[in-house]
């Protein structure tokens, strides 16, 4: 797994199998989001100060380069909030002009020419979740109706921008959910996992599992249990005994303050958190989702308006 620390601006490569940090790369950025570039060992990191950083982990030491910056954008320097790579040549980045708390935009970035497109593909008060789906020819984005990330009174429209339309035009609304979606990941053919800030109790995984369909979406009654809790110190090591590890491993308590989430190829759910000692905490969850043949197990169905 590739993991970033916003506090120290570091990139960690973490082995899920051995539960150890394999590599640490110093970036000196305010990391807000990251993504893997398909077909490569490169990782893109969105810097909250307005640049995209590319880390090539195939070299020793790792090669770090600024891919593209928003400082010369017509609207002014942007505070980047998310990034998603489409392929080796193109990625999409979300960000807001500094000082503007009510308008976030999604733009295309040419990784070869190091250029940020002037035209916004999508605008919303806040966009945190971006998910590229080249196999389906679409980019998913979570358009949040408020910019306050500490608010528990937000709704998110999960929308699709289609490659067949050059990602332009009115977005297709796939679902509307009544929580702040901080990240999105695809679990299977039509099942997605959404990181829901300020949702659920400390005994529950901080995610909602939804099945998208033509009529809208269904929230699935999935089963989640903590497999492991891995606190990462600034020195680039998994901390041994920790309060978060004890509470997660013995009592199944989530770490809280989740900022990131991904679903591994084997279906394991990983959430990234920060505790009060400023350690980065990874929690691995066993995620069990009922298949469509067994019924949706849905607790809610909402039409995509």
UniProtKB/TrEMBL annotation:
Domain of life: Eukaryota
Name used for this protein in its record: Anaphase-promoting complex subunit 4 WD40 domain-containing protein
Lineage: Eukaryota, Sar, Stramenopiles, Ochrophyta, Pelagophyceae
